[in-house]
Amino acid sequence: MEEIVAEASAKMSDPNYSAVLVGGFVQSQSAAAPYISASADDSGGAEEVVNTIFHTPLMGECFKRANNRTVGEMTFEILDRVASGDREATLRKRQPAVLEYIQTNIEHEGMASTVMPFALAMDLLN
User: Fold this and answer.
1) Is the pTM of the predicted complex or chain greater than 0.85?
2) Could you tell me the CA-to-CA distances from 38 to 56, 98, 110, 114, 125 in Å, in that order?
3) How many structural domains does the chain have?
4) What percent of the chain has pLDDT over 90?
């Protein structure tokens, strides 16, 4: 996870990097933007929605590298299924490094809560 964050930090000097990362993720995961947008009020508004969408493909890259394959499509059904229960406890048990990334890099509590189902869905799909 640290390696991917370091790579992303280095690429942030390219003004197109974020747009390509976010755009590519939204195109490949059609449920992502509407699911995150539905949580806009909890996530802190439009700016935080974009930040949420930025962090989600970075987590996807971690799963991709760890499993040597891309993350499958996260449907509304899958996201709703993994969103129930104690997301943080489930992540702590199944993907502690991903939970640590979320807690370290995402300051807004609502945004962190919105990102967790994506991490759990990625874990389920891989």
Assistant:
1) yes
2) 16, 23, 12, 10, 22
3) 1
4) 48
